[in-house]
Design goal:
Order of helices and strands: HHH
Helix content: over 70%
Structural class: mainly alpha
Strand content: under 5%
Radius of gyration: 12 Å
Distance between the termini: 22 Å
Largest sheet: none
Number of strands: 0
Length: 57
């Protein structure tokens, strides 16, 4: 998947949230732990988890 498109989708999803929900998403992002030192794999997994969290918000 195109990461730029995914990042834009996440940004547009976050813009529709209220302040409290935005802080929850930010806390979620900050609490994502790397499972591997491979930054590309980490980024892919993190973006996927963020996307799922925004769908459930």
């Amino acid at each position: 998947m195109n990461y730029l498109r995914l990042e834009n989708e996440i940004i547009s999803s976050v813009q529709t949230l209220n302040g409290h929900q935005k802080y929850d998403v930010l806390d979620y992002i900050n609490n994502i732990k790397p499972t591997n030192h491979n930054s590309r794999l980490y980024r892919r997994r993190a973006m996927k988890e963020i996307r799922e969290a925004l769908k459930n918000a």
